[in-house]
């Protein structure tokens, strides 16, 4: 069963009129209720909402990359970490980043295998690393969190 996305921060300016505040959403799933398709859809809905605010330009390519990143991360959770898991999404207009964090209850950190075009499967973290500026793994009280950082384009379209 999926818990609906919950807004943690306003889509508009904060109390002081600051439009640079981060936009955050999260969702949690119970054991066996998550799929890569669910996660991709959640990212798509979140980025559509971010676009609708008019505060941040999110190109289609970045949205597609974010959906592929979350698909690979959730696939790892489904295969290797049964139990409760979650997806935290954040757009930080101030420092031009999209953060995608997936957490689960397994304490075992993911391992990135060396590239091997002959191997079937096992390329998820390689793909995430190629699409992300950085990938970090953080221990949690019960489990771990994997966070991928994607860069938003600058006003001049660079990044």
Annotate the secondary structure layout.
Elements: E1 6-7, E2 23-29, H1 36-53, H2 60-80, E3 85-92, E4 97-104, H3 124-131, E5 134-140, E6 143-151
Antiparallel strand pairs: 1-2, 2-3, 3-4, 4-6, 5-6
Protein name: ATP-binding protein
InterPro entries: Anti-sigma-factor_SerPK (IPR050267), HATPase_C_sf (IPR036890), HATPase_dom (IPR003594)
Keywords: ATP-binding, Kinase, Nucleotide-binding, Serine/threonine-protein kinase, Transferase
Task: Give your account of this protein's structure.
With 159 residues, this protein is α+β, with helices and mostly antiparallel strands. The protein is 30% helix and 26% strand. The chain has one domain: Histidine kinase-like ATPase, C-terminal domain (Heat Shock Protein 90). The protein has a 6-stranded antiparallel beta sheet with strand order 1-2-3-4-6-5, covered by helices on one side. This is ATP-binding protein. GO terms for molecular function: ATP binding; protein serine/threonine kinase activity.
């Amino acid at each position: 069963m999926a818990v609906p996305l919950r807004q943690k921060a306003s889509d508009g300016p904060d109390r002081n009129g600051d439009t640079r505040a981060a936009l955050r959403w999260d969702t949690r799933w119970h054991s066996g209720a998550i799929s890569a398709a669910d996660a991709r859809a959640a990212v798509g809905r979140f980025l559509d909402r971010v676009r609708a605010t008019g505060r941040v330009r999110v190109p289609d390519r970045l949205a597609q990359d974010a959906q592929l990143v979350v698909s690979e991360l959730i696939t790892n959770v489904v295969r290797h970490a049964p139990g409760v898991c979650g997806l935290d999404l954040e757009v930080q207009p101030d420092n031009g980043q999209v953060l995608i964090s997936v957490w689960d209850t397994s304490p075992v950190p993911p391992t990135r295998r060396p590239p091997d075009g002959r191997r079937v499967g096992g390329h998820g973290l390689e793909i995430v690393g190629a699409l992300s500026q950085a990938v970090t793994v953080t221990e949690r009280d019960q489990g771990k969190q994997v966070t991928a950082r994607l860069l938003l384009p600058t006003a001049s379209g660079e990044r």
